Automatic annotation (TrEMBL):
<protein>
    <recommendedName>
        <fullName>Sporulation protein</fullName>
    </recommendedName>
</protein>
<dbReference type="Pfam" id="PF09579">
    <property type="entry name" value="Spore_YtfJ"/>
</dbReference>
<feature type="transmembrane region" description="Helical">
    <location>
        <begin position="85"/>
        <end position="107"/>
    </location>
</feature>
<dbReference type="InterPro" id="IPR014229">
    <property type="entry name" value="Spore_YtfJ"/>
</dbReference>
<keyword id="KW-0472">Membrane</keyword>
<keyword id="KW-0812">Transmembrane</keyword>
<keyword id="KW-1133">Transmembrane helix</keyword>
Length: 116
């Protein structure tokens, strides 16, 4: 089972990683742009086997799973001094608001723990 998960994860990350992070050129309002995304994958697998002597002892097991996400972070557009990055503000807010809440919640606890 673990070999299947390893093979799948190697194929996914080696073949699609860069192509998903930097998309194909698109034309927006007559300007060519290259979209940029933060891409993440995760895979896991499991196995099991338990055999004990006795009436009700038995065992078996297997499992596996995976997932991924993509967050559009911006685009590269031509500028007067070469390509420049234009961030996707909606994605930035979507990510930064929860991070700010976590920081606001945990920072006072960290300070209190350090004072003790």
């Amino acid at each position: 089972m673990s070999n299947i998960v390893e093979t799948l994860s190697e194929r996914m990350t080696s073949s699609v990683g860069t192509r998903l992070s930097y998309g194909d050129k698109v034309t927006i309002g007559g300007v060519e742009a290259v979209p940029v995304a933060l891409v993440s994958f995760g895979f896991g697998g499991g196995a099991g086997d338990m055999q004990h002597e006795g009436e009700h002892d038995a065992g078996s097991g297997t499992g596996g799973g995976g997932g991924g996400m993509s967050v559009p972070v911006g685009i590269y557009v031509p500028g007067p001094r070469g390509p420049r990055f234009v961030p996707n503000l909606i994605a930035l807010l979507t990510v930064s608001i929860p991070l700010a809440c976590i920081a606001g919640y945990s920072l006072p606890k960290i300070v209190r723990a350090l004072k003790k």
